[in-house]
Amino acid sequence: MTETSAARFYEDLADDYHRLYADWDASLRRQGAALDALVGPEPATVLDCSCGIGTQAVGLALRGHRVVGTDLSPRAAARAAREAARRGAVLRTAAADMRRLPFPVGGFDAVVCADNSLPHLLTEADVRAALAEMRRVLRPGGLLLVSTRPYDELLRDRPASTPPQVHQEAGGGGRTVGFQLWHWHDDGEHYDLEHFQLLPEPGTGGADGAGEEWRVRVRRATYWALGRDRLAALAAGAGFTGARWRFPEETGFFQPLLVARAA
Question: CATH top-level class for 3-150+226-262?
Answer without folding.
Answer: alpha beta
